[in-house]
From TrEMBL:
Source species, domain of life: Bacteria
A Pfam family annotated for this UniProt entry: GGDEF
Listed name of the protein: diguanylate cyclase
Annotated ranges, domain GGDEF: 224-359
Source organism phylogeny: Bacteria, Pseudomonadati, Pseudomonadota, Alphaproteobacteria, Sphingomonadales
Coiled-coil stretches: 166-193
PROSITE patterns named among the record's database cross-references: GGDEF
Keywords in alphabetical order: Coiled coil
Enzyme Commission code: 2.7.7.65
Catalytic function, reaction form: 2 GTP = 3',3'-c-di-GMP + 2 diphosphate
Molecular-function GO terms, alphabetical: diguanylate cyclase activity
Length: 359
């Protein structure tokens, strides 16, 4: 979260000079990433590489903090990597997605077979009608009632078979429609899960970035203001360490819902990771957004939070926040980074306050 002097003053560091010699600033990350792979003993697989790249890039502070804590606690394995990605990268359960794909494939195969069976039944019926037509219009048409009955009998049998086939097809198509509706519902749930933080029910990082990107495009089209707040629960590590992670989770849920209710239907709140949340407020200027977030800060600080299970006091919970205004050339990461810089100032000045970014 803290910016180095070089980042704030423009001074040139040894890393900057080395990166320049390599030809591109980010090439230096490759050496650091390789060292981290050697240090952890993890395989250079895409999931590991992507997580470490985000960590070393330094812009995703929740990932940086979580991975720092994981590395400090001891060796990490692929299970820990997957958990970090689920918590901070909006990663879906690959096995669940694979199962949905397999279900869709099986349903498609069954429907294709039903259609092939229906085509075969229709072809048989068509041949029976053609044969009857040829007999009726041939050189020797039926001359007696017996001959006519003999001609009509196979047509009646074919019609009976076709009616039964049609009924079977209707039943199979109704079943296929029900399966499709169920699969569509499962896919919708999977899509929601991919962008939802399982702990708080808010948007996760992936969903948050997508929603903020859409809000930025809408703000540009409508020529509207868009303010973004970075919120961090004060002394959250102490809550986890002293009261346990279960209580820490309860605090995260409470603060998340407090923010979501406070910004109303026009605002959006998501959990960036750890104890960090992002709220964005479309159509709101910086000062108005500052006032909104500060009102929520004051309301939270003025409460005694009680544990859901037994009503025991958890004391007072406060947060610090930084607020930035979206610029036309901003990306989600850049506008969040400025809000994060203001948040760092709020922390440095004593916490439990809201600071604007004036850049």
């Amino acid at each position: 979260m803290e910016q180095s002097p070089a980042a704030t003053t423009g001074a040139t560091t040894a890393d900057d000079r080395l990166a320049g010699a390599l030809g591109h600033p980010q090439l230096l990350l490759f050496d650091r990433l390789r060292d981290l792979l050697v240090q952890t003993g993890l395989p250079p697989e895409p999931d590991v590489y992507d997580l470490f790249w985000r960590y070393l890039g330094g812009l995703e502070h929740a990932i940086s903090r979580a991975l720092d804590e994981a590395l400090a606690a001891g060796p990490i394995d692929m299970a820990a990597v997957k958990q970090l990605r689920r918590d901070h990268c909006g990663e879906s359960d690959a096995s669940a997605i694979a199962q949905l794909v397999e279900t869709a494939r099986e349903q498609t195969d069954r429907l294709s077979q039903h259609l092939r069976d229906g085509q075969a039944d229709l072809a048989i019926y068509g041949r029976a009608i053609a044969d009857g037509d040829a007999a009726l219009n041939g050189a020797r048409a039926p001359a007696t009632a017996g001959e006519l009955a003999a001609l009509i009998q196979p047509l009646g049998a074919a019609t009976t078979v076709m009616v039964a086939a049609n009924r079977r097809m209707e039943t199979e198509l109704e079943a296929a429609a029900a399966e499709t509706a169920a699969l569509r519902d499962q896919l919708r749930k999977a899509e929601n899960a991919a962008v939802t933080d399982a702990l708080t029910g808010l948007l996760n990082r992936r969903g948050l970035i997508e929603a903020l990107s859409n809000a930025q495009m809408h703000a540009a089209d409508a020529q509207q203001d868009l303010s973004v707040a970075m919120v961090d629960i004060d002394h959250f590590k102490n809550i986890n360490d002293q009261r346990g992670h279960a209580l820490g989770d309860e605090v995260l849920r409470f603060v998340g819902q407090h923010l979501a209710l406070g910004v109303g239907e026009t605002g959006t709140v998501g959990r960036l990771g750890g104890e960090e949340f992002v709220a964005f407020l479309p159509g709101m200027k910086l000062d108005a957004a500052m006032a909104t977030i500060d009102r929520l800060r004051g309301a939270l600080a003025g409460q005694i939070i009680r544990r859901t299970a037994d009503g025991a006091s958890m004391g007072r919970i406060t947060f610090s926040a930084g607020v930035s205004i979206n610029h036309p050339d901003d990306t989600p990461d850049s506008v969040i980074a400025r809000a994060d810089s203001a948040l760092y100032t709020a922390k440095r000045l004593g916490r439990d306050r809201v600071i604007p970014d004036r850049n």
